[in-house]
Amino acid sequence: MQLCFQLVLLNFGPEFLSPAMDNLLQFFLVFASLSICATSNKVAEPYVVYMGSIEGGDHDALQAEHLQTLSSVIPSDQKERVSLIQSYHHAFKGFSAMLTQKEASLLSGYDNVVSVFRDHILQLQTTRSWDFLDEESGIGSPRLRSKASNDVIIGIIDTGIWPELPSFNDNGMSMIPSRWKGTCMEGSDFKKSDCNRKLIGARYYTSQVVSIQPPSNDPHVNKVNTFGSPRDSVGHGTHTASTAAGSMVSNASYYGIAGGVAKGGSPSSRLAMYKACSLGGCASSTVLRAIDDAIDDGVDIISISIGMSSVFQSDYLSDPISIGAFHANQRGILVVCSGGNDGPDPYTVVNSAPWIFTVAASSIDRSFQSTIVLGNGNMFKGTAINFSNHSESVTYPLAYGGDVAAELTPRSEASNCYPGSIDADKAAGKILVCVNTDPSVTRRIKKSVAEGAKAKGMILMDEVEKEVPFDSGSFPFSQIGNDMGDQILRYINSTRKPSAVILPTEEVKEFKPAPAVAYFSARGPGALTESILKPDVMAPGVSILAASIPSSDGVPVGKKPSTFAIKSGTSMACPHVAGAGAFVKSAHPRWSASMIRSALMTTASVTNNLGKSLTSNSGASANYHDTGAGEISPLRALSPGIIFETTTEDYLNFLCYYGYKNQAIRTIAGTNFSCPINPSPDLISSINYPSISIAKLEGKNQAVTTVSRTVTNVGPPNSTYTVSVDAPTGLIVKVSPERLVFTRRGMKASYHVNFQATTMSKGYAYGSIVWSDGAHKVTTVFAVNIM
């Protein structure tokens, strides 16, 4: 027996800090905790066995084959373990099962097995956002949206859906496309009639080990627990689904704020929900099964607001989302994923395989302001969503958390409003001022501590999260930065009876600058390879109003539970891009997944509503590892001029260059593919991607690195494009040829780009290459690491 330490990460994004989750967080008190674990080669744990591509075949025969494979490594005296948790048999083959470490190691050596990995738990990562994107495009033609087809199907892999909401009504929609092969599964609280011409499919998954077993006469075997349904009990899946393709709903708001017409990015598209997640997260084996089903059902786009922690990233062939997305791309399906909420540090972006469309999160031109009025009349405009009954006519005593510490409690803990750190007798009836020098205690926990101490409100000093408004319900709450916080603390220390009041939330429209990169949005470079620029694009992910499950938590006095919610996270940005992809697909039904991605990347905006370069939430200049190609502009993406098509062969070459063995890649591809001669990681930069990243450029000897690209004309038949380059001083970028001439639509042209560092200092340099025919601007952003 071997003792080990296991790092338990509860890294949910800011959009996911619900009251239910708060109970879990309060139980653990901190996000990261150490626990002693015991592992042994004799202890069975859930594993995923991935066996590559599949071309047809008998489902039952394949399951029998999987069971036979499993029985070959499990001892005969433990035959009850010869059972499959999940079976993959549509777009790829494999299974998940309970295995010991030794058994998993044995299976990984089989010729027909690509990889074996533990079944990890993955993390779950609008009235204004779509109008904002349209306005920023500079086109602003509603006629373009009216032409959208309703034959595009978006598959959402998430926590389920609440089908009765108006965002999922099917008014005006035609018959379901005949190619749809999916189903509407019934459950304890979900009927087939809950699906319609908008929500055309709904599946849910159990993780019962006895779900697939060899035939047995034992009456206790093969009993599958069917409890469950596609219904959402968390709210995350309902929110993402309506963001991507929700129907138009007039007079939508969240208890009177963020009012307007709620709609998805492609209101005419169909939705199919795959409930693979719960409050505790998402089993990777189940996510892989959901992707397999979605491919077979006939979806066009898959939206996945899920991912591993950036701390525990797996390689491309041990990551269930990467595996599933590869096979979806083989079938022509665009897979859009959230980039993660572990920002703002570099190397935190996840879901970074080149066949995944990876999304960062940004703000929009709307903010929610909760004003603090001090007893001396000074006012501070904080951010929050609160529906308190405070007014300027009544003020309350004001106290710093450290000054009302419980007996024997360190002042630092009380100032952070740790659970159990506040003396309720001292805090009752006062507004507390708390700091956030310890990020292990969330805003919701701090708010619960203040409420528990019978405080009249809370002011939180936190520079980092201040741009992401916290929803405190009816409890008075406002968040400010350090400068305002210092002024309030000076006021407290300057008078014998400091007082304040926190006013209810007011909506601030036409907020500037916007968009800005959200503080939590994960940043590149990618941890697995720096030769692919990630994230790919940025989309609205802060304070997004969309449909949500009716909940009694935080309902203002005299109000009914809202059918909308305001959430933040890359989880919210992801369905914006999925909806935008569906919108482009509806106008160009024959475009491949990579063509749609290219159109959205090369037409993305790199300026804000002040006409200046994009910034981070702190106001600092953003780079392309923060923003990807920029903020999506769905209307401009309808006419990109020329596009970069990345083929399955490009992706297979990528796997070769990355270092995977040829036999494994053949198994994945399902063909007799052969790697190029002398594959090298340096060649990754030349796969036909819509952005460019050079992982190493020798600066000392002024070496030259050359990459190539091929573009396809999707604009006017007779077009000539000329190139311009924006590069920092000291980095020489030359494009050859400088003109691309097209005589027909669909014609291809190739060019080379040489990079040479002369006087650049070490580190990343950023710039862009722009092709223009006078009507189109096709932008390829680049990142070059000077060594």
TrEMBL record:
<dbReference type="InterPro" id="IPR023828">
    <property type="entry name" value="Peptidase_S8_Ser-AS"/>
</dbReference>
<keyword id="KW-0378">Hydrolase</keyword>
<feature type="domain" description="Subtilisin-like protease fibronectin type-III">
    <location>
        <begin position="687"/>
        <end position="784"/>
    </location>
</feature>
<keyword id="KW-0645">Protease</keyword>
<dbReference type="GO" id="GO:0006508">
    <property type="term" value="P:proteolysis"/>
</dbReference>
<dbReference type="Pfam" id="PF00082">
    <property type="entry name" value="Peptidase_S8"/>
</dbReference>
<feature type="active site" description="Charge relay system">
    <location>
        <position position="236"/>
    </location>
</feature>
<keyword id="KW-0720">Serine protease</keyword>
<feature type="active site" description="Charge relay system">
    <location>
        <position position="571"/>
    </location>
</feature>
<dbReference type="Pfam" id="PF05922">
    <property type="entry name" value="Inhibitor_I9"/>
</dbReference>
<feature type="domain" description="Peptidase S8/S53">
    <location>
        <begin position="150"/>
        <end position="609"/>
    </location>
</feature>
<dbReference type="Pfam" id="PF17766">
    <property type="entry name" value="fn3_6"/>
</dbReference>
<dbReference type="InterPro" id="IPR041469">
    <property type="entry name" value="Subtilisin-like_FN3"/>
</dbReference>
<comment type="similarity">
    <text>Belongs to the peptidase S8 family.</text>
</comment>
<feature type="active site" description="Charge relay system">
    <location>
        <position position="158"/>
    </location>
</feature>
<dbReference type="InterPro" id="IPR034197">
    <property type="entry name" value="Peptidases_S8_3"/>
</dbReference>
<dbReference type="InterPro" id="IPR045051">
    <property type="entry name" value="SBT"/>
</dbReference>
<dbReference type="InterPro" id="IPR000209">
    <property type="entry name" value="Peptidase_S8/S53_dom"/>
</dbReference>
<feature type="domain" description="Inhibitor I9">
    <location>
        <begin position="47"/>
        <end position="125"/>
    </location>
</feature>
<dbReference type="GO" id="GO:0004252">
    <property type="term" value="F:serine-type endopeptidase activity"/>
</dbReference>
<dbReference type="InterPro" id="IPR010259">
    <property type="entry name" value="S8pro/Inhibitor_I9"/>
</dbReference>
<keyword id="KW-0732">Signal</keyword>
<protein>
    <recommendedName>
        <fullName>CO(2)-response secreted protease-like</fullName>
    </recommendedName>
</protein>
